[in-house]
Each structure stands twice: as C-alpha cells, then as structure tokens.
Amino acid sequence: MAIRVIGGECKGFMLKGPPGEGTRPILARVRKSMFDILTPYLKDSVFLDLFCGTGAVGIEALSRGAQSLVSVELDKRVCDCIRWNLNYCKMIDESEVICTDVFEFLRAFDRQKFDIVFAGPPYPAYFCEGILDALDHCHFLKDNTVILLQHHIKEILPEETKKLRKYRDKKYGDTILSFYKIV
Predict the structure, then answer these.
(1) Domains along the chain with CATH numbers
(2) Distance between alpha carbon 142 and the CA centroid of its chain, in Å?
(3) Is the pTM of this model over 0.90?
(4) Buried residues in 100-109 as b, exposed as e (16+ CB within 10 A)
(5) CA–CA separation, 80 vs 87, rounded Å?
(6) Inter-residue long-range contacts of 123-127, CB under 8 Å, 24+ positions, other chains counted
(7) Widest CA span in the chain
(8) pLDDT tens digits, residue range 57-92?
C-alpha cells in the first residue's frame, strides 16, 4: 500500500505502507480537505500525530510548512516504516517517532507544547472520547492549540469537555473530522 503526499514541498512523493493489515490510511480526499482547513495554522507549527500509521498526516504537515513533528505509534514495525518515510522525504531531522501506547504518551509527555494535535485511531475502537479526556489532563496544549480527531460516524463525541470545545465537524462518508480548541 503506497500513499502519495498531496501538497507542499514533498508533493508527489510515494510513502511506503507498513507491513501487515493493521493500519488504515486516511483517504487522500479527507487528508486534502483536512489540510485545506489547517492551512492557516500550519506555518512553523509543532505538530503531534497520534496513532500515526503510515506517517502520511505528519509528513503532509511538514511538507506544507510545519516546523516539527512528533509521531506516536505503538507497533515497532510501523514506527520503523514511519522513520523510513521521514528519511525518504528528508524530514527525519524535524521529526521524532515515539514507539509507545498513545494513552501512556498522553499521560506522561511534557517536553514541549503542540500547536496542532491530530489523532486518527483505528476503527471501530472508539478511542476518541478517551483521547479527549486524556487531553483535558495533559500539559502540552497551548491556549490556541487545534485538536483534530478522525473517527467513525457511529462514534458520537461531546460538544465540550472540561478544557475543550468542538467548533467544527466535517463528514466524509462514514468518517468524521471533529475540530476542538481550548475553552
């Protein structure tokens, strides 16, 4: 499974997919729409990609102007694939791949703050509400951090949490992108 970078300095690069059947890459049309929405926030941003799979979303962010990227994925083989893709795109120096459980990362990480947080957990795990809860307690969000969750249409997310408020939903077939900001 190969995934094409669709915009920015690496436009057209073909990314390698990880071995096995465990990842579900975000559709190109969803990724394009997502980055059309994120464009005003991307330049020089610090981007966090949770459940990063192929790494396509984080690489797309760097390609379109993000300053740095932290990618979090549990599967070591998938982490190796992400590092290969980052190296291939000559973006390894602006990136860090952390091979750990996303929820453990959300509980423990405090080395830097992020401008954009993207989470695309596996379907149909229904992890997004747990992610929102964990983000309510983490220390790496800025006052203007944009949080974006990709989830299945059957996973209904709250309009508001202790710290976050949903300000936009975008539907693509059975996929929804939900956008949150700090209240």
Answers:
(1) 2-182 (3.40.50.150)
(2) 17
(3) yes
(4) eebbebbeeb
(5) 11
(6) 123/24, 123/151, 123/152, 124/152, 124/154, 124/155, 126/151, 126/152, 126/155, 127/51, 127/102
(7) 41
(8) 999 999 999 999 999 999 999 999 999 999 999 999
Amino acid at position 83, single letter: R
CA-to-CA separations, 162 to 49, 73, 98, 181, in angstroms, rounded: 22, 26, 27, 11
